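Morning F.,

Quick status update on the modeling queue. The single chain you submitted on Monday has been processed. Sequence for confirmation:
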Amino acid sequence: MKSSREVETPLMQTAVSDIARFTIALLFLGLVLAFSLFFIESNSNHLFLAVAAVFGAYMAMNIGANDVANNVGPAVGSKALTMGWAIVIAMVFEAGGAFIAGGEVVSTIKKGIIDIDAFGDDTDRFLWAMMAALLAAALWLNLATVARAPVSTTHSIVGGVMGAGIAAAGFDIVNWNTMAKIASSWVISPVIGGVIAALFLLAIKKTIIFKDDKLSASYRWVPVYVAVMAWAFVTYLVLKGLKKIWPQMLHFFNDILFFTIEVSKKPSFATALFLGGLVAVLVYGFIKKRLGTKLNKLENTRESVNVLFTIPLIFAASLLSFAHGANDVANAIGPLAAINDAVMTGGISAKAEIPFWVMAVGAFGLAIGLALYGPRLIKTVGSGITDLDPIRAFSVAMAAAITVIIASQLGLPVSSTHIAIGGIFGVGLLREWLDKSITLEAEIEREKANLATEKGRLRALYEQLESVKAEKDRTPKTSEDMLKIYKLIDKERAVVKKAKKELKKDKKSLYIKQGMIQKIITAWLITVPSAAVLSAGIYYIIEGIMR
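Structure tokens below.
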């Protein structure tokens, strides 16, 4: 039994760690407030803008703590990356995506869910609504992170904008057709992500894992899968991550090339596919050449195949983080950019320029939130739903990229969070189905048989012990026999305990953790209405204070 000191020490360490994280978060918010007050052009609404900047920073930190886990969680759960390296990689690529490809203009009303004309010339109501939406979405994300529930940050801000809009101008302000499409993404995103991840994992199993000569199969197929990954991610990045700096990139190439490229506002799907295919061919040749020497050092096992997918998985996590930083930073800075534009111009615009300081608040907020509170959700995504290895995690990453490409071309509303979680569910369900019908079920039956045998031996020892105890003649020989039996019983108990532990582990690995499924789906369903209710309440509070 542990002493009170041994119990108190970890609790004290946890408390100190929590206080340190909270202090760093407050320090960041304080720096944002100070910068907003002293280094931004002042006017009559200057204080309001400074408070909005703090809310934007708070929102960015919560996005980093919750949403980023979807990109690096599978890599950590599969042990391809340590928690520390995952956080470093995600911080660098999330911030890089935000700064490099975050864009210069953002829609002030996310997804067009409310009619901006309903505010008329009442700039104050618009400012209050955006402020309420920003704070409500951040609070909801904070609650979800504490509950270890990965939720969509896009849906959080959508709910916030909807609730504040209704509070400000009534139900007619909401575009209910758009809201219906967003609600449909609760089903579309996880289903497509799950199907693609399961199909990809099944393909890897059929072409490599189930083969007798796994190394030869790996030499043939691993370059193909990594090349497909390169195609998917380059296409994904061009379409989603580089679209906002596409004209600048074309101008740059026109300055250094001997021929002229027609400058367009954003890349076409055909262009993205071509660039992805070009990179895929180069990657295929590179991987094929490297595998020739690497395979000689590996054994013909599944673990060796997992090793081959580790580096591609790390690249996938990095690229997903870059694309996420380029796209989802708008969830934090979109309302803030709208507030900044309204304060500076005195009017309401459908599009708002993003000043560098606003982008910096979003980018650094993502990184700091991830570093301070990201491990909580990374563990949930990486190992809280189903057990992952590099092959399974690679399949989830592929599903995330391919689903976004397909959905963007078909005009389907999808959530990156729902896609990633759906991919993990798909991998877990496929794994359960395959393992039940092939190997793990047989292993469980063997474990059951071993456990039954060990229990039988233990019962026999107890019977032998009772028999010895029943002897009336307590000779030294009898005492010696009893001591031997006690030692055998202790040893057999340890064996039974270990057998039970192995059986429990094998049974657990068959199934997706059902409690986690229920918690995540519940969080998804209530995200929009919860954020909306919070936002409406905050709007009324702001209105009461300001009027």
